[in-house]
Design a protein that fits this description.
globular, 11 strands, six-stranded mixed beta sheet, five-stranded mixed beta sheet
């Protein structure tokens, strides 16, 4: 599949820009859960019938549990509600949607493993190798698509979306754009967080508010706002880690009743995480 993604200013750069009007839906960390992916698409279409809507995933669309965990009694409690990995199908569906709808994902550490990141072991010693084999003849095209994912996206409403916590930043947008995905293949995972801003935004779990504000100031020009990210698992669905950064868990390792997504008004202004409230901006995936 070829063409131009429907969303302008997002793909093919490190710092993507979102529209200034409409609704923004945010989901995190699906890791091959096609049911939850399609649930977000359903929510997107409900919104899009009424007003312009963007659906943004915060990375880690891929790499789910192996088939042997589907055997009776084999599913571990810490993986939440049982599901089957459909990473290859999910990526092909995502590819289809970005050309037809206002849908995007930022890069996650699991996607990065396909385009120059370190080998990621989770359910398999090399997650990317297993998924590459599943993709078969679609592999090269899908990896080409993954290379176009942004490291982050920025909205004029004061919100920035990343995969990992905003522990480090680059000094300017130009410095972010100078980064590249390749060259991390041999970097030990435990060193990625402190390697550079790219490594931190893909791998960091948690940070202080000062670090979040540093990133917000560089990419929005204001020392206020909210960074929304995933990567970490919050069993209850979300955690306001500080005044200016919040981690959200939409799918992976959660029970259905705790899965959470975020709905924002792109024409509003969000100065801090206090502006995100349950039942308004913070919503259950399955009410």
């Amino acid at each position: 599949m070829t063409g131009t993604p429907r969303l302008d200013g997002v793909f093919g750069r490190m710092v993507g820009r979102l529209p200034s009007e409409g609704i923004l839906l945010i989901a995190t960390d699906l890791q091959g859960n096609l049911v939850d992916f399609e649930r977000m698409i359903e929510l997107y279409h409900v919104e899009a019938r009424q007003q312009p809507t963007v659906l943004a995933f915060c990375g880690d669309l891929i790499h789910g549990p192996p088939p042997e965990l589907q055997a009776p009694g084999a599913w571990p409690w810490h993986l939440g509600t049982r599901y089957e990995d459909a990473s290859a199908e999910l990526l092909l569906r995502f590819e289809e949607l970005i050309y037809a709808e206002q849908v995007l994902s930022v890069m996650g550490n699991h996607e990065h493993a396909h385009v120059g990141g370190p080998v990621v072991p989770k359910f398999y010693p090399d997650e990317a190798a297993v998924l590459d084999a599943s993709l078969g003849p679609d592999r090269d095209r899908i990896c080409g698509l993954i290379r176009t994912l942004p490291l982050m996206v920025v909205a004029e409403c004061g919100v920035v979306l990343t995969h990992g916590a905003p522990r480090h930043t680059a000094p300017s947008i130009e410095a972010f754009e100078a980064l590249s995905w390749g060259g991390y293949e041999q970097v030990p995972i435990l060193q990625m967080v402190d390697r550079d801003p790219l490594g931190a935004l893909l791998w960091a779990r948690g940070c202080d508010d000062a670090s979040a504000l540093d990133l917000l100031e560089v990419v929005t020009g204001r020392r206020s706002g909210v960074v929304v990210h995933g990567h970490d698992i919050v069993r209850t669905g979300y955690d306001r880690e500080g005044e200016h950064h919040i981690v959200v868990s939409t799918s992976f390792a959660l029970l259905d009743r705790h899965k959470t997504y975020v709905r924002l008004d792109l024409s509003a202004r969000y100065e801090s995480t206090r502006d995100l409230q349950e039942g308004q901006e913070i919503l259950p995936l399955y009410p």
